[in-house]
Amino acid sequence: xxxxxxxxxxxxxxxxxxxxxxxxEALWFFVYAESxxxxxxxxRTHTPSSKITTTRKLAVHENECETMLDLYRRxxxxxxxxxxxxxxxxxxxxxxxxxxxxxx
Length: 104
Known about the structure:
Elements: H1 2-11, E1 14-17, E2 28-34, E3 37-42, E4 56-57, H2 64-76, H3 82-88, H4 92-101
Antiparallel strand pairs: 1-2, 2-3, 3-4
């Protein structure tokens, strides 16, 4: 999965939106990859933009992608995973948006 994310955002860096569970407005953020790393930053072309103020590397450790993918799938099935996701990554909203953008 990580390789798919890196490949997609290396070939086509783009704005991606968050996937709120409730009727909150989605926020946009920019995703790009270089040198095998994935980064998120404020949206380039869409509004409203996420409140992220600086570019941030998405994954802190190697297993974060698979952990977040599992949480994303459980969340899509209606399971409450918010506390577990917050403990796993400060970037959970970005992960969810990326997975949704890729059609997962």
